[in-house]
Design brief:
By secondary structure, this protein is mainly alpha-helical. The protein contains five helices and four strands. A hairpin with a 2-residue loop joins strand 3 and strand 4.
């Protein structure tokens, strides 16, 4: 299939597919006219790449582990193929991802705490009171004066 068809089937723009090729994540065949030609497994491969990128992995790490992926949720990396350098990269990525998870959890908890502080209980969902400025005013515009009669 041509790059446009792969793009339609995966939802990944053609420009991004070319980038994946530059990063050696995809290796399409080339027709005599120079057009890229992708086989059916390329659809699955692009979906894997997208999922790994969305999870925060770098293209460098994806390039190293992609040959060992069989399904989106399975990695078949034989222990003798795992170099110390790749192991260190994967450990570093796992730590970086954990830091992101911790940060997201803190942000989630802060949002929940904020909502709990400003929203009354579930039985009364009236809007929170207007915050006051340090000078004691409400921060809302003053009501217009009545026109003279």
């Amino acid at each position: 299939m041509k790059i446009g068809e792969l793009s339609r089937r995966t939802g990944v723009p053609t420009r991004m597919l070319r980038y994946y090729e530059e990063q050696e994540l995809l290796r399409p065949e080339r027709a005599d006219n120079g057009y890229r030609s992708y086989d059916e497994p390329a659809v699955h491969r692009v979906q894997q790449i997208r999922g790994l990128l969305d999870s925060g992995l770098t293209t460098e790490i994806i390039r190293r582990i992609l040959p060992f992926l069989n399904k989106p949720d399975e990695i078949h990396l034989h222990p003798e193929c795992l170099t110390p350098e790749t192991a260190a990269l994967l450990r570093g990525e796992a730590e970086r991802i954990q830091q992101r998870i911790d940060c997201l959890a803190r942000n989630r908890d802060a949002i929940h705490a904020y909502l709990a502080a400003v929203l009354p209980g579930p039985e009364d969902r009236s809007p929170p009171p207007t915050p006051r400025r340090s000078d004691g005013t409400s921060g809302e515009p003053a009501p217009a004066e009545a026109p003279p009669t």
